[in-house]
Write a structure and sequence with these properties.
The protein has one domain (about 5-65). Helix content is about 15%, strand content about 40%. It contains one helix and five strands. By secondary structure, it is an alpha+beta fold. The protein has a three-stranded antiparallel β-sheet, with helices on one face. The protein has a two-stranded antiparallel ribbon with strand order 3-4. It starts with a strand and ends in a 10-residue tail after the last strand.
């Protein structure tokens, strides 16, 4: 399976939606496009193939965690 990137999407509430995707830019672009044409829902497909509909007027933030290698200790 390809490397995945975790994307957290905060809503205007105390809840967050966290999905794993292969390309975070695809998520950001889908939400940006939906907001620019006043489309109420941005559709995003996660790494497992599940589609998620995001109500863009309820978004609070989008946080992207990279898929880069992380090492612990001294190198």
């Amino acid at each position: 399976m390809a490397d995945t990137v975790t994307v957290r999407i905060g809503l205007q509430s105390v809840r967050e939606l966290e999905i794993e995707v292969e390309d975070a830019d695809t998520v950001v672009n889908a939400i940006t496009a939906a907001m620019s044409v006043a489309d109420p829902v941005a559709w995003i497909t996660d790494a497992k193939g599940t589609r998620h509909g995001i109500a863009v007027d309820k978004l609070g933030f989008i946080g992207v965690e990279g898929a880069e290698d992380k090492t612990v200790g001294f190198g």
